[in-house]
Amino acid sequence: MTTTLDPVTEAPPARPEDEKLPLPTLLGAGLQHILAMFGGVIAVPLIIGGAAGLEGPQIALLVSCSLFVSGLATVLQTVGVPWFGSQLPLVQGISFASVSTLLTVVAGNGAEGMRAAFGATLVAALVCLAIVPFFAQVVRFFPPVVTGSIITVIGLSLMPVAAGWVTGQATLNGAPNPNYASGANLALALVTLAVVLVLSKIRATSRMAILLGLLIGTVIALFTGQATWNLAGAAPFALPQPFAFGTPTFALGAIIAMTVVMVVVMVETTADILAVGEVIGTHVDSRRVSDGLRADMLSSAVAPVFNTFPATAFAQNVGLLALSGIKSRWAVAAGGVVLALLGLSPMLAAVVRVIPSPVLGGVGIALFGTVAASGIRTLSKVNYQGNQNLLIVAVAIAFGLLPDLSPSFWHSLPEGLMVVVDSGISAAAIVAVVLNLVFNVLAPGRPPEPSHLAAAPPRLVQQGEMEMLRGKGEH
User: Fold this and answer.
1) CB distance 336 to 38 below 8 Å
2) Which site in 82, 288, 349, 412 is 20 to 30 Å from 190, CA atoms measured?
3) Which residues sit opposite 92 in a β-bridge?
4) H-type alpha helices, 345-408
5) Burial class (CB in 10 A: 0-12, 13-18, 19+), 225
6) How does it sit in the membrane (predicted)?
7) CA–CA distance, 429 with 375 (Å, rounded to integer)
8) Backbone phi, then psi, for 309, in 5-degree steps?
9) Would you call 122 helix, strand, or coil by DSSP?
10) pLDDT in tens, 263-321
């Protein structure tokens, strides 16, 4: 690709992210980034709105607001203002990391649950915004053994959501649901998943596999009668109404749980900022990291005002930078503008509402599985020899999955504490951080013989090698 020269200096930009592109290329590259993350952005409000028991128009509002805030957050992160924005080609979207905790807060509580979720998000984001200058001291407590465990739990704990989309509810209005786990719904979900897998294999469509899977699955559902096209009453344009669900409420337990989540989000954003800098070949110092984190937390604090959830960096777009070779932050900023404009159209949100649950379930299997696989990939980089890291991962993941495997496990605890540990992500984060402190930070030294739980794989390898050597007569 030919570098566009500055019209005044006639020299290439000092930073690759400042490259100016022709308008068609700018819009095309921006739209590509939006398509790569669109499915993830709309999935979060669909998950949370459904769990809260909201009606169709209310879920459509959540989707519109999520698109709108994601677009504004992307523009802030890429263009930047003093103290806010890394000025890197970093796409912002509604974070999956918050879903598990928010589900605990909103479950079946309708608008009341949404107000509590928005209040917890607002306070947690402001708390984390305040600690950005000190975050360099906190990051060391979130090494890969901690973040990998947390990300794995995020993906695994969302799998029941995907399964519920496929099967539907067992009862409707107190009566058995005749379509519960029906063969037709299962077939639609599996066909949608197959479409996503096939499109992921094709290079030209791999970055749009989720969005195209939703589209093709919905078209199939329309032909089979499993979806209904209804855009009645949907306006083509409308400004989002602030606090549409009412004034936020503030529950201490929910705030603590969301603060834990937002700290994890800050760790993920830091990693994304550093990764983008490495991919595009630009210098990223602590100031740019801090500015990026401040933009992240400010966007997340504003999000509840516009009826949505924490907006943070989308890691999947980092790979798109390497694939496309387009490093300009202005391309991503253009995509952010398009995303915000899409969020101003209730008609688009109504189109999204047409997507049937089994189609979401088929896509969710791939989407949530990818999150879990990302955590496993992070854990693969952890050193497990001569330490207790395997035990840290094991216990953290176990605590993270307990709320899903046994929903009433923590219900004898006080309500404020229960909200914190009843969220898989919060429980996994707390346990992983504490165990990492105990075994890797505060411990006076690593034991010469770790427990058999942590050391079993290395010891088996060493024993096998010794037997092989002895067979050759070597001692």
Assistant:
1) no
2) 349
3) 313
4) 346-353, 357-379, 389-405
5) exposed
6) Multi-pass membrane protein
7) 13
8) -120, 175
9) helix
10) 878 877 887 887 788 778 888 888 888 999 999 999 999 999 999 999 888 766 665 67
- Residue type at 169 in one-letter notation: Q
297 vs 141: CA distance, rounded Å: 20
Q: Is 63 helix (H, G, I), strand (E, B) or coil?
A: helix
Average pLDDT for 415-442: 83
Q: How far is CA 5 from CA 12, 13, 14, 20, 344, in A?
A: 5, 7, 11, 8, 35
- pTM here is 0.68
8 in a domain, yes or no?
Answer: no
Rounded to an integer, the average pLDDT of 199-217 is 81
- For residue 249, the enclosing domain spans 16-471
Instruction: Flag whether 1 is in a domain.
Output: no
* CB crowding 400-414: b at 16 or more within 10 Å, else e: bbbbbeeeebbeeee
Give Cα separations from 15 to 283, 286, 320 (angstroms). 8, 17, 19
Q: CB atoms < 10 A from the CB of 50, how many?
A: 18
- Res. 419 pLDDT band, cuts 50 70 90: low
When pLDDT is cut at 50, 70 and 90, the band that residue 407 belongs to is confident
Sign of the Cα pseudo-torsion (20, 25, 31, 33, in order)? negative
Residue 16 DSSP class: G
Low-confidence winner among 34-48, 285-299, 422-436 (lowest mean pLDDT): 34-48
At 316, list the tokens: 């999947």
Q: Please tell me the distance from the alpha carbon of residue 287 to that of residue 267, in angstroms, as a whole number.
A: 15
- One-letter amino acid for residue 289 of the chain: V
Answer left, alpha or beta for residue 90, where phi above 0 means left and psi between -120 and 50 means alpha: beta
How far, in whole angstroms, is CA 466 from its chain's centroid?
45
- Dihedral-angle region of residue 313 (phi above 0 means left; psi in -120 to 50 means alpha; beta otherwise): beta
Has residue 234 got a pLDDT over 80? no
> Would you call 176 helix, strand, or coil by DSSP?
strand
CA dihedral sign, ordered 315, 319, 320, 326 = positive
Domain assignment present for residue 272? The answer is yes
pLDDT digit string, tens, across residues 82-136: 999 999 999 999 887 788 788 888 887 888 989 999 999 999 999 999 999 887 6
Please say if the pLDDT value at position 466 is more than 70.
no
Dump pLDDT digits (tens) for 79-89.
999 999 999 99
Distance CA 120, CA 102 (A): 9
Instruction: Output phi, psi for 317, to 5 deg.
Output: -75, -15
R_g of the chain computed on alpha carbons: 23
Closest-CA residue to 40 (of 95, 91, 98, 118) = 95
In the chain, the number of structural domains is 1
